[in-house]
Please model this.
Amino acid sequence: MQKLKQTRNGLLAFLVMLWGGLAWAAGGGEDQIVPDKPEIEQVQEVIASQLLAFQSSDGAGAFFHAAPSIKGAFGDSNAFMSMVKRGYRIIYDNESWSFEQSRIEGDNAAQIVLVQDGEGQQIRAVYYLGRMQGRWQITGVQQLDAGGTDT
Model:
């Protein structure tokens, strides 16, 4: 009987802790629940994270955001970084960027980004993303115009 009472008390304590934890995680009230980020913000965060990875030469961080098809084509982050450095120099050497027009249709997104390097060279590019495995991943980048100096 004593053991049953301890088990019941332990279960009750667990349920109280669980309930309290859920109330705390929810912010204590409905008016304080933070909604999910809009999809466009999620897309832009992925692009920004990759651009920041390029700034710090973080190949693994940049490669993480590439879709499986890109990862399969390049095999590893070193080959991927070499390709970006050769073909997308301004993006690789980026210093700043701004988001322009965007479009999301279902699990596909396109975001135009104006990217500038430290020498004032700019490139406008479209980032294509797909939602795969529960997160947005970059499926490709198309340069819209050639790099030029900022005037």
